[in-house]
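Tokenised fold entry reproduced for absentees:

. . .
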Amino acid sequence: MLTGVLIVPWLDGFAKLLGQTLPVLEVAWARFAVQLMLILPFAWFRLGRNLLKLGQWKLQIIRGVLLVLASTLFFASLRTMEIADAMAVFFIHPLLIVVIAPILLGEKVGFQRWLPALVGFSGALIVIRPGMDHFDWNSLNALGTGFCFSGYVLLGRRLAGEGSPIQALVITGLAGTLMMSVIQPGVWITPQGIEWIWIGAMGSIGLIGHYFILKALEYASASRLAPLDYFEIIGSVLVGLVFFGDLPDAWTISGIAIIVSSGLYVMQQSMKGASFNQQKTVL
């Protein structure tokens, strides 16, 4: 999960660069089309005809659609918002996961999971300090991203064991490509020069990052992993620095320290839980 959430923000950096000259819907289509192009040959080589042997098809498709919606809404928010500001609004999703997981998945969420989720969210707010002087309607797109991504993660946990992460990536890539292909004739602008490289990098990063996220959901509960999502803000700061020259100030460093502390606390509790379960198995 840590690897996945530190990789994914680089996708957002390329998406923001592309969004300066290309329509948002075209950027979203490219993100999933490249993912599908890269994963399909590998998936067929590994799984062959078993590629399409999946349980709970409806939920699999819904999960793919939710990720498509989340990506599209977030790319839309980046048209006028800084990546960090959009991420601040998006970071409602770990709290949503902690709240919804007991209802949809029957997971037990105690104080030890509520606390780091709330602490991590406060750290994200310190990093972003989203006291906007004027309301940006695109912040609603970022908020919608949080809701859609929460559903994506919860369904990822619900469908754990119903198929491999490779199959899930094929489905999301297929869903995004088909949904967005219908719209392309009305919005298409042919990419130029380096934009093709950015498109390839965006799709590749999305493929790798979400593979790690899906893999994590096979082994741990959604509510346990949710606070670790706050490490994504570290990746966002790095993207802002590399792509747009945004240097972190003292407030940002303080917020990152809080986020990392909450994430390390979750990791410690997870390791204790795993050790305790191993001891029970031995006994």
Notes: Confidence is low (pLDDT under 50) at residues 278-283. Residues 111 and 167 are 35 Å apart (CA to CA). Residues 250-282 form the longest helix (33 residues).
